[in-house]
Amino acid sequence: MITPLSLLVEIVVVFVITALLLHKYGDWKRQNAMIILVVLISWYFSLLTVFVLPLDISSTTFRQCMELGVENASTNGSHHSTTCKEPWSYVPEEVLPRLWRIVYWTSQFLTWVLLPLMQSYARAGDFTFYEKLKSALKDNILYYGSYVCLCVICLFYIILYTDIPLDGSKLRAIASSASNTWGLFLLIILLGYALVDVPRKLWFSGNPQLCLLRSYFQVSKLTSDFYDAEAELKNLIQRIYITEARIPENDPLRVYVDIVCSIIPVQFHPTAARVNSDRSSTTPSPTKEVLVQYHKQLKSALHTYRRTHIQRERMFDQVYELQKIISNRKEDYQNYKDYLVQGPFQWPDKWRLFCFDYLWAAIWKPVVMKVLSTISIVMSAAVVWSESTFFKENPVLSVFALLIRGSKSNYNYAVIEILCAVTLAYLCYCAYSTVFKIRIFNYYHFAPDHQTDENSLIFSGMLLSRLTPPLCLNFLGLIHMDSHIIKKRILETQYTQIMGHMDVISIISNGFNTYFPMVMIIISTATYFNIGSHLLSAIGFPQYFADDEITEDIVTEGQRLALAEKDKRLRRGLLSPNELPESTYRNEDSSRGRRFKRADRSSTDESSFNSSKFEMNLQASSPRETFPSKNIFDDV
């Protein structure tokens, strides 16, 4: 058996992409090596499925051509069959089934068994491996027990109301169908949000004024989060040292309290006088259980403090970059050659004359972002329409099914692979980017610059492993390569033959898997009108609204904080006045004199997104600046 070069190249490329992505969010040096490895596998298998599926589709198209030729020859009594040219990326029939079995069942084992256990293990505050494992098993008793109860209910339903034989293969098919159905439910919710949010974010990202005002808002929120994290950490450390002072040197608990204290940064060590003065405060009696809880809380608090600190510093850097972009856009071209955005690298001196940084940030990026936004609008509209009509086989209404059918008629395998790859890439980007943007208080928070904790990495691995199979099966339904959707016998992909269909149980097949994707229309409409943000605001979770006075105050506070931080950096020599435009390092309390005005909707090209805006007069930047509305999944 010879593995084709195209498949080998994709296997290597996907691994490199996955490793780079995990390096961006995780910390290979500081975090547990086993957790990093398991997360890498879960991410890698999810992305590999998406990358390899177009090869499976083109190879299946070739086999369908060969099957059609054999049928025609048999019908006509002739040995002559339709000429079918083998695609350059053809994968032999015996290769992909083995790959899909390894990828799918490994991912299912990780997402339903191993990753939940490792998630509890990573959060545990115990001091030894076996104690952490014991705590993780206890934490997952309820988790696993709930799934056992659901499985028992499903088995009773199958026994009493269906004629499905409960042999090994059928049990695997039922388990796969149940898992994919749960993943489809989650996938439709994420896609319904992202298919509107992605084009909107791309459109806004091309406007430096919009980005600057939003950055002010984020600076204010991150500063609040940072001070809350710092206060919580200091309070916890103070209680730990009070407990530590109560434990004698010869006490058996001493070794555990020393482990807890050893991870406290030096700058948070309190003085002996402070500890002695607070010893009368209410703290629990020193026990091993108390120290375990302190250890668990301290790890979480330290990570939250480091993450919010680094995110806040990065946001200040982003504010100063945007201020430079806006300021330099108003200067004459002779000054542009001195412009340089502080990024991950700097252009060589001999290239600065060509102003690559300026041309990208001030001229090319706005155009590119608007073009990408327009393309994504078309893609989102096609996806929503196709999800609502893909079950209709005659006439064919799904946009993607029509495109693939047209390519199949000429057996243009390259076009088939490109169409499948582009569509799958967009669907995955929408679904996965939403996973990365979800924030569940401090329990789950994804942050770049190696600031994502082990718990969040594991949680993302679980979500990706659960989302990818139903996403691929749903895509096969969109292009009418699922015989159970179009109710017609066809030669299916190797992926479908291994994964099965999402309709083994009649209660699932009779409507849910076919019509539930139409719910995407409701979710997309709600996202377009920010209904979710209004609901969260109504129940006490403040959201970003352009017409809200609280939002205006937060933006004003963000500009004041940016000016104060700039002055502090200048005093410490971390910035030079020459690195910033003159207007950005004036300290004239300009933020107190700012006034917000309603924006004329007809004068802004963002009105097509139906988002309210207001203008803001700044001494330090452009007199006409607007910012987009807050979305439910934003980081801040």
Structure, described:
It is a single chain. Helix 2 (33-76) packs antiparallel against helix 3 (96-123) and helix 3 packs across helix 4 (129-139). The strands form 2 sheets. Strands 1-2 form a two-stranded antiparallel ribbon. The protein is 65% helix and 2% strand. Residues 331-354 and 580-636 have low confidence and may be disordered. It starts with a helix and ends in a 20-residue tail after the last strand. The chain is mostly helical.
The largest pleated sheet is described as: 2 strands, antiparallel
- SSE sequence, one letter per element: HHHHHHHHHHHHHEEHHHHHHHHEE
Q: Helices and strands: which structural class?
A: mainly alpha
Helix content: 55-70%
Q: What's the rounded overall pLDDT mean?
A: 77
Strand order of the largest sheet: 1-2
Detail the poorly predicted runs: 331-354, 580-636
Total strand segments: 4
Radius of gyration: 29 Å
Bin the strand percentage: under 5%
Shape: globular
Enumerate how many helices there are, as a single number: 21
Distance between the termini: 52 Å
